[in-house]
Structures are given as structure tokens and as C-alpha cells.
Amino acid sequence: MKNTATCAFRLFLLFCLGFLSFDTFAQQANDAGELHGNFQLDAQYYNRDSLIGAPVVPEKVLTNGFMNLWYTRGEFSAGLRYESYLNVMQGFDPRYKGTGIPFRFASYKNDQLEATVGNFYEQFGGGLILRAYEERGLGYDNAFEGVRVRYQPVKGVYLKGLIARQRTFFTLSPGIVRGFDGEINFNELISSQKEKKTTVIIGGGMVSRYQSDQDPIYNLPENVGAFDARMNIIRGKFNFLAEYGYKYNDPNATNGLIYKEGQALSVTSTYSTKGFGLLLAAKRLDNFDFRSDRTAAGIGANINFLPAMTRQHTYNLPATIYPYATQPNGEMGFQAELTYRIKKGSKLGGKYGTEITVNFSGTNGIIKRSVTNDTLGYFSPFFMASRDMFFRDFHVEIHKKFNAKLKMNLMYLNWVYNKDVVQGLTGFGTIYANMGVVDISYKLAKRHTIRLETQCLITEQDLGSWAMGLLEYTYSPNWFVAVLDQYNYGNPNSTLRIHYVTGNAGYNYKGNRIMVQYGRQRAGIFCVGGVCRNVPASNGFSISILSSF
After folding, report:
1. Torsion angles phi and psi, residue 186, rounded to 5
2. Which one of 64, 187, 473, 500 has the lowest number of neighbouring Cβ atoms within 10 Å?
3. How confident is the model at residue 9 (pLDDT cuts 50, 70, 90)?
4. pTM of the entire structure?
């Protein structure tokens, strides 16, 4: 991998130098192209802390770092990313180890055609059968490496196809992924429909994975296909989107090597007008884990993307103690959200108005009935959920601005969380919790703001109740400093009723940011879009440096 990365880096530099030399020779100095990029370094020094269960780190210091470089000149673009993990920080997959250039590409694009070779990210529809993306905070990157073409034969018709392998840390997965997707916007395609109030968009795609069968016991399918069909209807303030996916039998490590087909359905409708918004959504998954390596598990080699049917919380306790992770082998979820803004000038709205959001989401398992042929695993009625409750989230959030200096957010949450199912554990059962958040910001003077945030999680299960307090001072737009304390005051073991105190400070200037932090970090789970990683407890000093140019 090291030799390959070094070779790729040299070729890229020669390529850029060749372009610059050509420009000089042709006396086109004003059209030499542009070079942009960004850099990030995260490092932590780890102290021993057996009381909170922090793992011992022999290296003492662990780092994650990367730099992106993008070059564009007219219709041509190229780029690369250098990454370094020496060694990878706690909470990230240990298979990120060492250094290299796992991402590099060259692309050409005109009005109708775009062709890319090398590494790229792509998505078909909502991602039910294919989505490659990067989420650096999770250590998640399933980029493709191969060839991709996008083509627009006429306005309103969009086609794209690819053949590639996927990144799995510093290697490539063994499976070859081939895909084609098409989408038609009838209002753009048909001239008589351009002025219509209703917009209709339909689309569909096909993805196949080839992986040779080397299993000494099972006869495994080498080519596994998946298909999706979708429809989007937009009329004024109303939006309706539905997508259905089907996957042929794919015995793999996550489904216990059964030969059952997979199905997925996602339906979302929204209505939005001034001061009012409504969202209704439902989703069903059945044996729909799809990977470019049938032996992979965790976050490795995922071809598709299955988001959680729940609100993505940003506050600390609800976001990191009991977040929900999608269960691709079988779940049925729903979500409803109502947002209402009380008018300005009314008694409840006040001078600036008051915004209220009510959200309810839940996920159950699916009914699985045994079948005669046990290699098929089970039979599941499509529109029936089981009584196995995986997750419930009911919350009410109020945003209120009192005057030019003072504003406040209030939130109440009721939580039901099946820890055994969601985290793949045993012996914890279902956890019932109530949570409250109070978030107050006050502008002391121009550019000076102080923010106080308090949170409380109350439960009699698991580790018991938690409280959290945060005090933050910001000198806009450059400086901020904060201190945070999380206290597990309800832990059944009195010796583990611990304060997790952390202090941090940061400086921003133009495209640069530096942040330092010191203190204790409790063990938890960090999730984005239903994809999660475990974060172990730690004690120490960390620094983060970001820069873009």
C-alpha cells in the first residue's frame, strides 16, 4: 500500500507540473487552474484512569490526520487525500493504521458528460441500494475506486453508471460493484409540463456485487443483485417521496448465511408553510445488509445506506448515551414531527415569536416465521411489525427569543431503548428514561456571549441517572472557552458515581481553527444517521487543528 500511495502521489505531482508547464509554454498564465484543499490533525495524550475504565494506551499519544488537495482547470479536475494514523485514536477502528493515499481521482465534465477515474463517492436515489460517503467523525469511508460516468442525453433525463471496488480502511474489498441508475424529471423533459404546479420525478437503479465463492461448505452466489424504484411528487408546499428496494439472496456474515431475499421500503411526506411544518415517515427493512465483502461486519464494506428513523439529536446526553443504530436484518419504524411557530406579537409568541417542535419516532422488530426450507431462514409478512420494541423517542422542543440579548431552548424527552438489540449485547434489557434540557444564551455585549446548558437523564436501569452542565463563553468570531461536567449520580455502584469534567478552548481565524481540551471522557456511543461507533472512556489532553485554503 505504501509503494502504491507513493507512486500515486508522484504521478499526481508530475501531472500538475505538466499542466502548469503547458500553460507557461502556451502563454496562458491567466488560465493555469486553481489549487484548493484542507488539512486536519487530531491528537490525544492519554492518562491512566482505571476508575473510569479507560484502556491503557502504550503509545501515550495517538493521532489521526489528513490533507485534501483539489486541482481544477476548466472542465478538468483532479485531487488526492493523504491520511496518517500513528496510531489511530481510541474509538476508531484499529484497521486504520499507518499512512497512505487511499483517495485520488481525475475527472472531466462538460454540459452533458462527466467521467471520473480513481476514487469517488456516489449515491443512487436515497441510498437504499448504493451510497458511498465519508463521515470523518465516525471513521467511516466506503469510497469507490474504479470508473464512473454521468450522462444527461436530454434535459430532464439523468443517467449514471459505475464499476469499482470499495475502500475498507487501507485496503480494497474483494467484491466488484457494478451499478446503473436513471432518473427522469417529467417537468424538465416535457415542455408542456414545465409550468405545471405538480413536479413528478421517477427513478430506478440496479447494483450487483461479484465475489468469488471459496467457501468449502456452502454454495454461495457469486453475483448478488439489488434493484430499487422511487418516485418523488412535489406540489406547492407538499412533498412525497417513496423508494422500494429488493435484493436477491445474499448469505453473509450478518444474516447467518441464509438464502432469503431482502426488501426495503422508505416513505416520507412533508408539508411546510409559513409557521407550520409536518413530517410523516415510515420505513421497513428485512435482510437488507448489502456489502462488497460477504464476510464483513461492523462499518466495513457497506454498499448501501440505511438511515435511522429518528431525530438526530445534538445535545450530549440524548445523542451519546442511548442513540439508535439501524438494524438492517429486520426493523419497522415510523416518525412524525410537527413544527409550529407562534406568531410574533401574540401573548405566547412575544416580540420574536416562539417555535415549538413535537417529534415521535419508534422502531419495532419484524415478524419472522419459520419455513420448511431452513436455508431460507424465515418468512415475514411485509406490512406487519412484531411486538419487540427496539426504540421509542418522544420529545418536545421550544425555541424562544426574549429580546436582542436573551434566547432559550427547552427540551423534554421520553426514551425507550432496547440496549441488547441495538448494541448487540445481552443482560441489559430495555431501558426507560426521561430527559430534560435547558439551553440559555445571553449576549453580554457586542461579540461577547455566554451560554449555560444543563441536561438531566433519569432512569432506574443500566448505569442509572446522569446530570450534565456546560458553561461556555464566546468572543465572536474568534475565541471560545468552555467547561463541562457529566455526573453519573444515579449509578447503583456508589464508587462509580463519577464526575467527568472537561475543559476546552478554541480559536478561529478565517479558514483556520485550533481547539485544545483536557479532562475525562465517559464511554459512550457516537452515531450519525444510524451508523455508530463506540467511544471508550479516556482521560487526557487533546488538540485539533483544521485549516482550509
Report:
1. -65, -30
2. 473
3. very low
4. 0.90
